[in-house]
Design goal:
This protein starts with 5 loop residues before the first strand and ends in a 14-residue tail after the last helix. Strands 1-2-3-4-5 form a five-stranded mixed sheet. It has one domain: 3-Layer(aba) Sandwich (Aminopeptidase). The chain is of the alpha+beta class. It contains four helices and five strands; from the N terminus they run E-H-H-E-E-E-H-E-H.
Protein backbone atom coordinates (compact mmCIF):
# COMPACT_ATOMS: atom_id res chain seq x y z
CA UNK A 1 0.00 0.00 0.00
CA UNK A 2 1.21 3.49 -0.83
CA UNK A 3 1.30 6.47 1.46
CA UNK A 4 -1.96 8.41 1.46
CA UNK A 5 -1.74 12.03 0.40
CA UNK A 6 1.14 11.53 -2.05
CA UNK A 7 0.64 12.58 -5.64
CA UNK A 8 3.04 11.78 -8.46
CA UNK A 9 2.96 14.03 -11.48
CA UNK A 10 5.10 15.79 -14.06
CA UNK A 11 6.92 18.87 -12.76
CA UNK A 12 5.42 22.25 -13.61
CA UNK A 13 6.91 25.53 -14.70
CA UNK A 14 7.78 27.54 -11.60
CA UNK A 15 8.89 24.45 -9.63
CA UNK A 16 12.46 24.48 -10.91
CA UNK A 17 13.84 25.75 -7.59
CA UNK A 18 12.29 22.93 -5.54
CA UNK A 19 13.36 20.34 -8.08
CA UNK A 20 16.90 21.78 -8.31
CA UNK A 21 17.35 21.36 -4.54
CA UNK A 22 16.43 17.68 -4.81
CA UNK A 23 18.67 17.14 -7.84
CA UNK A 24 21.57 18.72 -5.95
CA UNK A 25 20.88 16.52 -2.91
CA UNK A 26 20.83 13.41 -5.15
CA UNK A 27 24.31 14.17 -6.43
CA UNK A 28 25.65 15.22 -3.02
CA UNK A 29 24.32 11.98 -1.52
CA UNK A 30 26.11 9.90 -4.15
CA UNK A 31 29.32 11.86 -3.64
CA UNK A 32 29.44 10.25 -0.17
CA UNK A 33 29.82 6.80 -1.77
CA UNK A 34 32.35 7.43 -4.53
CA UNK A 35 34.86 10.26 -5.14
CA UNK A 36 34.11 10.02 -8.88
CA UNK A 37 30.82 11.71 -7.94
CA UNK A 38 32.62 14.79 -6.52
CA UNK A 39 30.49 17.86 -7.12
CA UNK A 40 31.69 20.74 -9.27
CA UNK A 41 32.12 24.17 -7.69
CA UNK A 42 29.03 25.37 -9.56
CA UNK A 43 26.91 22.26 -8.91
CA UNK A 44 24.01 24.26 -7.45
CA UNK A 45 23.74 26.39 -10.59
CA UNK A 46 24.00 23.30 -12.78
CA UNK A 47 21.25 21.63 -10.74
CA UNK A 48 19.05 24.62 -11.56
CA UNK A 49 19.80 24.16 -15.27
CA UNK A 50 19.00 20.45 -15.02
CA UNK A 51 15.72 21.23 -13.25
CA UNK A 52 14.80 23.66 -16.02
CA UNK A 53 15.52 20.97 -18.64
CA UNK A 54 13.48 18.45 -16.66
CA UNK A 55 10.46 20.75 -16.61
CA UNK A 56 10.77 21.49 -20.33
CA UNK A 57 10.41 17.82 -21.22
CA UNK A 58 12.14 15.13 -23.25
CA UNK A 59 13.30 12.88 -20.44
CA UNK A 60 10.85 10.97 -18.29
CA UNK A 61 10.53 13.06 -15.13
CA UNK A 62 8.04 12.90 -12.28
CA UNK A 63 7.88 14.52 -8.88
CA UNK A 64 6.25 13.30 -5.68
CA UNK A 65 4.24 15.90 -3.80
CA UNK A 66 3.01 15.82 -0.21
CA UNK A 67 0.95 18.70 1.20
CA UNK A 68 1.99 21.01 -1.64
CA UNK A 69 5.71 20.27 -1.19
CA UNK A 70 7.85 18.40 -3.71
CA UNK A 71 9.58 15.68 -1.66
CA UNK A 72 11.06 13.45 -4.34
CA UNK A 73 11.68 12.98 -8.02
CA UNK A 74 12.61 10.41 -10.63
CA UNK A 75 14.32 11.03 -13.95
CA UNK A 76 15.37 8.84 -16.85
CA UNK A 77 14.85 7.99 -20.48
CA UNK A 78 14.06 5.13 -22.84
CA UNK A 79 17.12 3.45 -24.31
CA UNK A 80 16.90 1.29 -27.41
CA UNK A 81 19.12 -1.76 -27.72
CA UNK A 82 18.11 -2.51 -31.28
CA UNK A 83 19.60 -6.00 -31.52
CA UNK A 84 17.68 -7.30 -28.52
CA UNK A 85 14.20 -8.74 -28.64
CA UNK A 86 12.12 -6.27 -26.62
CA UNK A 87 15.12 -3.93 -26.75
CA UNK A 88 13.52 -0.75 -25.45
CA UNK A 89 14.40 -0.24 -21.79
CA UNK A 90 13.33 2.59 -19.50
CA UNK A 91 16.47 3.69 -17.65
CA UNK A 92 16.16 5.44 -14.29
CA UNK A 93 19.17 7.74 -13.94
CA UNK A 94 18.09 9.68 -10.86
CA UNK A 95 15.72 8.87 -8.00
CA UNK A 96 15.68 10.84 -4.78
CA UNK A 97 13.26 11.13 -1.88
CA UNK A 98 13.93 13.64 0.88
CA UNK A 99 15.10 11.77 4.02
CA UNK A 100 12.11 13.01 6.08
CA UNK A 101 9.78 11.24 3.66
CA UNK A 102 11.58 7.93 3.19
CA UNK A 103 10.00 4.69 4.32
CA UNK A 104 6.58 5.68 2.98
CA UNK A 105 6.91 3.87 -0.37
CA UNK A 106 7.24 7.18 -2.23
CA UNK A 107 10.25 5.83 -4.15
CA UNK A 108 8.25 2.77 -5.20
CA UNK A 109 5.37 4.99 -6.30
CA UNK A 110 7.74 7.11 -8.41
CA UNK A 111 9.14 3.94 -9.99
CA UNK A 112 5.65 2.65 -10.79
CA UNK A 113 4.77 5.91 -12.54
CA UNK A 114 8.10 5.89 -14.39
CA UNK A 115 7.40 2.31 -15.52
CA UNK A 116 3.96 3.31 -16.86
CA UNK A 117 5.47 6.14 -18.89
CA UNK A 118 8.33 3.96 -20.16
CA UNK A 119 5.78 1.33 -21.23
CA UNK A 120 3.79 4.02 -23.07
CA UNK A 121 7.04 4.91 -24.90
CA UNK A 122 7.52 1.29 -25.97
CA UNK A 123 9.76 -0.10 -23.22
CA UNK A 124 9.21 -3.63 -21.99
CA UNK A 125 11.58 -3.36 -19.02
CA UNK A 126 13.01 -0.74 -16.69
CA UNK A 127 16.52 -0.53 -15.29
CA UNK A 128 18.18 1.72 -12.72
CA UNK A 129 21.65 3.21 -12.94
CA UNK A 130 23.22 3.61 -9.49
CA UNK A 131 26.75 4.16 -8.21
CA UNK A 132 28.18 0.70 -7.53
CA UNK A 133 29.13 1.61 -3.97
CA UNK A 134 25.71 3.02 -3.03
CA UNK A 135 24.51 0.06 -0.97
CA UNK A 136 21.41 1.98 0.14
CA UNK A 137 20.19 2.22 -3.47
CA UNK A 138 21.26 -1.35 -4.22
CA UNK A 139 19.17 -2.70 -1.34
CA UNK A 140 16.21 -0.51 -2.30
CA UNK A 141 16.12 -1.66 -5.92
CA UNK A 142 16.76 -5.31 -5.01
CA UNK A 143 13.82 -5.23 -2.62
CA UNK A 144 11.63 -4.03 -5.50
CA UNK A 145 12.65 -6.95 -7.72
CA UNK A 146 15.44 -5.37 -9.78
CA UNK A 147 18.46 -7.53 -10.63
CA UNK A 148 21.90 -6.93 -12.13
CA UNK A 149 21.75 -6.41 -15.88
CA UNK A 150 24.79 -4.34 -16.82
CA UNK A 151 27.91 -3.25 -15.08
CA UNK A 152 29.71 -0.02 -16.00
CA UNK A 153 33.39 0.40 -15.24
CA UNK A 154 35.08 3.78 -14.99
CA UNK A 155 38.73 4.80 -15.25
CA UNK A 156 40.44 8.15 -15.07
CA UNK A 157 42.20 9.19 -18.26
Amino acid sequence: MYEAGVSVRKPRKGEEGELARLIYRFYAFNEEFDPAWALSDDAEERATEEARRAVEGGDIVFVAEVDGQIVGYIRGYVRELRLLKDGKIGVITELYVHPRFRGRRIGALLIDRFAEEARERGASRIAAEIPSSNIVAERFYSKLGFRNFMITYIKEV
